[in-house]
Design goal:
The complex is a heterodimer of chains A (about 250) and B (about 290).
Chain A: E1 3-14, E2 19-31, E3 36-40, H1 47-55, E4 62-67, E5 70-71, E6 79-82, H2 94-98, H3 100-104, H4 109-122, H5 138-150, E7 156-160, H6 168-185, E8 188-193, H7 196-202, E9 205-209, E10 216-221, H8 233-246
Parallel strand pairs in A: 3-8, 3-9, 6-7, 7-8
Antiparallel strand pairs in A: 1-2, 1-4, 4-5, 9-10
Helix pairs in contact in A: 4-5, 7-8
Chain B: H1 8-12, H2 40-54, H3 66-78, H4 91-122, H5 124-137, H6 146-153, H7 157-182, H8 185-193, H9 198-236, H10 241-250, H11 254-282, H12 287-293
Helix pairs in contact in B: 3-11, 4-5, 4-7, 4-9, 4-10, 6-7, 7-9, 8-9, 9-10, 9-11, 10-11
Classes of the chains: A alpha/beta (about 250), B mainly alpha (about 290).
């Protein structure tokens, strides 16, 4: 499913302080079917805000966000979200977390049960079905969160720095796994990160955003064939380019 | 768009991490065994009591002897004196009366608090209707309503039950509202993006997520139920632990007063354990709450 972001302005009002924050200004972006787009930018650049608009958690002050040609008017199961923290339901087992979607949507649970087990093993958690989130490590919880979203067969996968809190090695393993799952499921992906290496490793196209008010500063296509070697000349060259674009946007 | 076939190496990188990295399921609880240090203070109190009585440091009226309290308890429970005193053999009646009133007050008060608290915490309209009134009532000591309760309902169970229900309600209500309001925005968003409707979010996410606060409120509410009931029984009921305790005081029978205090303490402790057992069973996932509460 395609995503059309047209001339979006997002202003946050703070009635207590009486001050307004312009988070996004004149943001336009088209994302194609099955495309893997990464939103890259320094913290506070509005990339999460933009993702929330596509998810339907928030609405633009001006402009429009269209998914599959229709204006977004709230969250929905065709747009799965993987948050920065796993946000699992802590009182439910991994298995029941994955089955949450079909349960609230009133779907047939006989087929769902098989599928939930299959998805948990797809994300490498076979045998952990009965574990509750607090019995799993951070990386394992995030995999349950991915399986939970995939269970709904989303057309679009929105990921908000999902691996930011993981250690470097786990993060790389998760990136590879995320690509593998994407190649099997063929959803459109919008992936937010501030990590340049992660962006280049994953993306078909990198959207570099400027500091607040967030705008699209540049779009970098990544033409390196997958699997990508993080130390190859092309990879390093792109890293240099991205750094040059982002460095001026970083405010300390 | 380049697509890589799934390789076996791909899946191999995604091995499950060992469970030892995860938080331990049930951390060893040192407190389960009886800690001898905890017995020191009660021992000191008992010895001081015995010394004070034995050496006549306090009058018999003020401080009954241990054995007097023991005999009184026996008489209260088993009527060993053959009905000599107003409390002889009435213990079972008093126990059942007090326990019934505490249970009804606690159950009805908690149930009302959960229903109204969830409505107020979840729907802005209910908050605007009900919360200001409740906030006005809250600083008035719950027991200050006793005179009105007696005039309104007469003596006996009704005013005692009214006051206990009211006290439990206010105590639990605050925690329910807080619990519902504290449910993380992202947890609700997670439910919504998975396809939940508002009703699902309320019943499948907000209520379970608020359960730790609700149960903590109920635990405090159970203690409040006893506190308020004893006062109500002192003034408005002709039976029960509170009645016996106050009536004995009017005869300056401090041995009976102490016996009554012991019984109230024991059953207060038991009802508290009851709530804690429910908490342990329902909240094994809420470790932060679990560790501070038990």
């Amino acid at each position: 499913m395609t995503i059309e972001i047209r001339e979006v302005l997002k202003v946050f009002l703070d009635p207590a302080k009486g001050s307004d924050t312009v988070a996004l200004q004149e943001v336009s972006l088209s994302i194609g079917q099955n495309e893997f787009v990464v939103l890259l930018g320094p913290s506070g650049c509005g990339k999460t805000t933009l993702l929330n608009l596509v998810a339907g958690f928030d609405f633009p002050t001006a402009g429009s966000v269209l998914v599959g040609g229709r204006a977004v008017n709230g969250p929905g199961p065709e747009r799965g979200v993987v948050f920065q923290s796993p946000n699992l339901f802590p009182w439910l087992s991994a298995y029941d977390n994955v089955l949450f979607g079909p349960r609230v949507r009133g779907q047939d649970l006989a087929g769902g049960a098989r599928r939930a087990t299959a998805l948990l093993s797809l994300v490498g958690l076979a045998g952990f079905e009965g574990h509750r989130p607090h019995e799993l490590s951070g990386g394992m919880q995030q995999r349950v969160a991915i399986a939970r979203v995939l269970m709904n067969d989303p057309d679009i996968l929105l990921a908000d720095e999902p691996f930011a809190s993981l250690d470097e090695h786990t993060r790389r393993a998760m990136q590879e796994e995320f690509l593998r799952i994407w190649e099997q499921t063929r959803t459109t992906v919008v992936f937010v990160t501030h990590n340049i290496e992660e962006a280049i490793y994953l993306a078909d196209r990198i959207v570099v955003m400027s500091r607040r008010p967030g705008r699209v500063k540049a779009i970098l296509p990544v033409d390196i064939p997958r699997p990508r070697d993080r130390t190859s000349a092309g990879f390093v060259e792109l890293t240099r380019k991205a750094l040059e674009l982002i460095q001026p946007e970083v405010t300390v | 768009m380049s697509r890589m076939p799934t390789t076996s190496e791909g899946s191999a990188t995604f091995r499950a991490e060992p469970l030892s990295e995860a938080a331990p399921l049930h951390p060893p609880r040192a407190g389960r065994r009886l800690d001898p240090l905890g017995l020191v203070l009660p021992g000191v109190v008992l010895i001081a009591w015995w010394v004070a009585v034995h050496f006549g440091l306090a009058t018999n009226v003020l401080l009954p002897s241990l054995s007097a309290v023991g005999w009184t308890l026996l008489d209260w429970v088993f009527n060993v004196s053959g009905g000599r005193y107003f409390f002889s053999g009435t213990w079972w009646r008093d126990l059942l009366g007090s326990l019934m009133r505490v249970m009804v007050g606690f159950t009805v008060g908690s149930a009302l608090a959960i229903v109204i608290g969830v409505l107020v915490g979840w729907y802005r309209v209910f908050e605007r209707i009900a919360d200001p009134t409740i906030q006005i009532l809250r600083p008035i000591p719950k027991t200050a309503f006793l005179p009105f309760a007696i005039l309104l309902f007469g003596l006996g169970n009704p005013p005692a039950l009214f006051l206990t229900i009211y006290g439990v309600f206010l105590t639990v209500y605050i925690q329910v509202v807080v619990g519902v309001k504290l449910v993380s925005r992202d947890l609700k968003r997670a439910a919504l993006m998975l396809g939940a409707r508002d009703r699902d979010v309320l019943f499948r996410v907000v209520l379970p997520a608020a359960l730790p606060n609700i149960l903590v409120g109920m635990r405090v509410g159970a203690a409040y139920a006893w506190l308020i009931l004893i006062l109500a029984e002192m003034l408005a009921v002709q039976e029960g632990f509170g009645y016996v305790l106050w009536h004995a005081y009017e005869f300056l029978r401090m041995d009976v007063v102490v016996a009554g205090m012991l019984c109230i303490g024991l059953f207060g402790y038991l009802t508290d354990r009851l709530v804690v057992i429910v908490m342990r069973r329902k909240l094994d996932w809420a470790q932060a709450v679990a560790e501070t509460q038990f």
